[in-house]
Amino acid sequence: MNRTSGRDGAASQNAHNAGLGVVLVDPLPLYREGVSALLQRAPGMRLLGHASTHHAALQLCDRARPDIVVLDSTLDPRCHLAHLLTSNDPALVLVALVGEANRNTRYLANAISAGIHGAIPRSVDPLQLIEAIRRAHSDRRYLDPSLAALATRGRGHIPTQGGQAGKPQQPLSRREYQVLQLIADGLENQAIAKILYVSVETVRTHVKSILRKLGARDRTHAVATAFRTGVLVINQDAAVPAIPAGEPHVPRATRSS
């Protein structure tokens, strides 16, 4: 699903009137509700919903097709979710809310590599947050001045995983992520194959790739690593849509399917 080069006609005007569709992904209910309220009040923006897990975020973005996703760095420290979102929709703009634990060159290098367009401190002033989102969307790149030095210092840095120096971090594909979720649910290869409508051999291939990318010895180790690094989360809750019934968002009207 790619956005075409121009906007024209009534569909473009409707999309403009509706404002930029925004999805918020953050694990903390209080912060999530606060930023959601801020986005709902911001002129030219429309909150499409919020989610607190990887799984819920993917489902919400598939359904709502937002223009922008605002993503908390602590929920996605290795930028796996960012990679999945941008791989599925290259036109999507991602803005990272960078927590203190992730204010380092490694995270910023991973984020830029995964396709994140904007990065701002999680503690940023509300008005600065709105301006940063707008800048990231219009310019396709925005880096808060307080993070710029870290990004510059990290140029040429190759993110590594599992402590193996020089080995590039490889994010999971969307299908591999689905397989990993089902493994975490306790399913064997045959059951996974039936759910995903693929062969058992295809599942085995995905499992081998998952083990390699996560640096895991076996399936159990892969699941443990995924939970520890934030690739998987324990609470797979549902996404919460923000659009009232009967008022559908016009998602990037000129994007082809």
TrEMBL record:
The modification 4-aspartylphosphate is found at residue 72. Keywords: DNA-binding, Phosphoprotein. One of its GO terms (molecular function) is DNA binding. It comes from the Bacteria. The keyword Transport does not apply. The keyword Transferase does not apply. InterPro entries: CheY-like_superfamily, NreC/VraR/RcsB-like_REC, Sig_transdc_resp-reg_C-effctor, Sig_transdc_resp-reg_receiver, Tscrpt_reg_LuxR_C, WalR-like. SUPFAM superfamilies: C-terminal effector domain of the bipartite response regulators (SSF46894), CheY-like (SSF52172). GO terms for biological process: phosphorelay signal transduction system; regulation of DNA-templated transcription. Gene3D superfamilies: 3.40.50.2300. Residues 165-230 form the HTH luxR-type domain. Residues 21-137 form the Response regulatory domain. This is LuxR family two component transcriptional regulator. It comes from Tamaricihabitans halophyticus.
